[in-house]
């Protein structure tokens, strides 16, 4: 099987789970209560060889959120995630020369460094864009984990540069009632109710050196991290595999015409029934994944390729422009034209 699933044990217990445990212990939470329902004991986390599944890690996060019962839990956790206590991966991040190098490594080794939420990194002439997507079937937990991971990037870059960087953040969810926590930990340049979850940074901050490159130490750390990833059963999560295939098909001129659940199952070399079962295990379904890919490809066609609504509707094989606009409004809450007018001032380009 060439992918990882949410019930497979591949997350080092001494990585991000340790950050959760330390945060809770410092706030007086009993470790036995924190680990309830995870199938783990404190001594398990102390062992080098202990691996846990995304499902176990998510249960740990659920317990932490409930036991701490604080609006700043995700934000405080994010302060601890990078470089964190992830062994060779943490060492590699601290040896990077600039933010662009660190973000590229985060994406390349995302199974190790970001095990339950998938980052994608793009650069255009003026900005860098770090997108986040659910790859484990997080459901309602996605926002909590998104908050923690966005804060981890902001805190990490601030520590290494020694200053606050001008991050611009976009969120798919609406403004939360605890928005003050966003202001404190993320700054004021925030947009809610957007089509994608993305962090945007001016390009000049990506390549500004925060330290000289220790080439030999960097290469040793890179070798160790690459070896760790090669030891995993796969380098990609199941939902990432499905998403990548759908996007590649949709971007081809005739590729989207025959996208059906059966064509995806053929690509993955599993039966349609097995594909449905795996999607349910990840708390999603085929239409939801297809709509996500169609939205991202539509944004790419509209914003980067400057296609008209009619051209996009043809490429994505809608019956007509009206059907495309109706679907787009269902996905985003607004029409393509209204969204593009809004995005012109917010610098969000293609996501694929």
Task: Report what the structure shows.
The structure is a single chain. By secondary structure, the chain is of the alpha+beta class. Helices cover 54% and strands 8% of the residues. It has helices at 16-26, 31-34, 42-45, 54-68, 73-81, 88-94, 99-108, 110-113, 142-161, 179-186, 203-206, 215-230, 238-251, 261-268, 272-281, 286-304, 309-315, 321-332, 336-343, and strands spanning 11-12, 51-52, 117-123, 127-134, 168-170, 190-191, 198-202. The strands form 2 sheets. It has a 5-stranded mixed β-sheet. A two-stranded antiparallel ribbon has the order 1-2. Helix 1 packs across helix 5, helix 5 (73-81) crosses helix 9 (142-161) and helix 14 (261-268) packs across helix 15. The mean pLDDT is 92.
Helix-strand layout with pairing:
Elements: E1 11-12, H1 16-26, H2 31-34, H3 42-45, E2 51-52, H4 54-68, H5 73-81, H6 88-94, H7 99-108, H8 110-113, E3 117-123, E4 127-134, H9 142-161, E5 168-170, H10 179-186, E6 190-191, E7 198-202, H11 203-206, H12 215-230, H13 238-251, H14 261-268, H15 272-281, H16 286-304, H17 309-315, H18 321-332, H19 336-343
Parallel strand pairs: 5-6
Antiparallel strand pairs: 1-2, 3-4, 4-7, 5-7
Helix pairs in contact: 1-4, 1-5, 5-9, 6-12, 13-16, 14-15, 17-18
Secondary-structure content class: alpha+beta
Q: How many DSSP-defined strands?
A: 7
Spatial strand order of the main sheet: 3-4-7-5-6
Task: Give the overall form.
Answer: globular
- Terminus-to-terminus distance: 25 Å
Strand content: 5-15%
**Number of helix segments?**
19
Main β-sheet description = 5 strands, mixed
Percent range for helical residues? 40-55%
Query: What is the helix/strand order?
Result: EHHHEHHHHHEEHEHEEHHHHHHHHH
CA gyration radius, whole angstroms: 21 Å
Contiguous uncertain segments of 5+ residues: none
- Mean of residue pLDDT values: 92
